[in-house]
Amino acid sequence: MSTTLDHRSVRLHGREIAYVIGGEGPTVLLIHGIGGDWRTWEPVLDGLATKHHVVAVDLPGHGRSMKGAGDYSLGALASALRDLGGALGIERATVVGHSLGGGIAMQFAYQFPERCERLVLVSSGGLGPDVGLVLRLATLPGSEVFLSLTAPAARSLINLISSAGRALPLRAAPGTEHYARAFAALAEVDTRAAFLGTLRGVVGRRGQLVDARDRLYLAEHMPTLIVWGERDAILPVDHGRAAQEAMPGSRLEIFENAGHLPQLDDPRRFIDVFEDFMATTDPSAFSIERWAELLRSHAEPVETGHRPAVDG
């Protein structure tokens, strides 16, 4: 049975945020990675919407959402999602994040644990220093000039190939199509500025700058599913294995024949794994008392020396 998915947008704090919404049931909030948009989840949306109320957002600076100068830090993006949920009347959701979106999902659960029922991390950022060379190179000085010269030509080539594909029985692999579309979008000045502003907040020339591993113990109360592609060339699968060990009660699913986009490489398995996770876990019952207890148990006193008295 096909589910109707609507494309909508809302203006919050003067900035337009676009999203796709549809289905009925418990809310599932889907967060794409850097350079992506709601289409990161397109092959699984109909399947998820048969049992859930799905919201696939275009993050600020991405897709059809407003671009240009702005705060693209993880905290600001998590707050934007909190405000979007408030505007849509969504009190709680299972939060699903891919790549950068996984880092945002963890930040959302950290800042607003009372609003997060479950956490699903798909090839997530923020779980180790390693990241693909291409993204590290894009943070270097001069990358904006390089992108401004190459992205328009790439967009023209991709449009040509797309036109040929409509006339011939040709179709690029889902992952290839995703990366090509993301790169071509950088031909636009505002999209390019948002991309680099977002990227440089989380990645440097030596790797990822943001690391959530020191706070993973706070997810003790949060049902968590980690999904990774064995062949991920952007973020290594070992990040997922280490995160699973550090997050009590979490579940790890590795897709052997998938890369950085397991939901595109094997959408049927992704839906099956997700639905099983939803059926076998209860929503988080957040407790401020338990949260404070966890923080106290991991707090380490710092020894301070006594300042010598000074005679007046």
Report on this model:
- Strand 9 (224-229), helix 8 and strand 10 form a beta-alpha-beta unit.
- The chain has an eight-stranded mixed sheet with strand order 1-2-4-3-5-6-9-10, sandwiched between helices. Strands 7-8 form a two-stranded antiparallel ribbon.
- It has a domain at 5-130 and 209-288: Alpha/Beta hydrolase fold, catalytic domain (Rossmann fold).
- The protein has 312 residues and is α/β, with parallel strands linked by helices.
- The radius of gyration is 21 Å and the shape is globular.
- The protein has helices at 42-49, 74-87, 100-111, 133-137, 143-167, 174-185, 189-202, 237-246, 262-265, 267-280, 288-298, and strands at residues 5-12, 15-22, 27-31, 53-57, 93-98, 116-122, 203-204, 207-208, 224-229, 251-255.
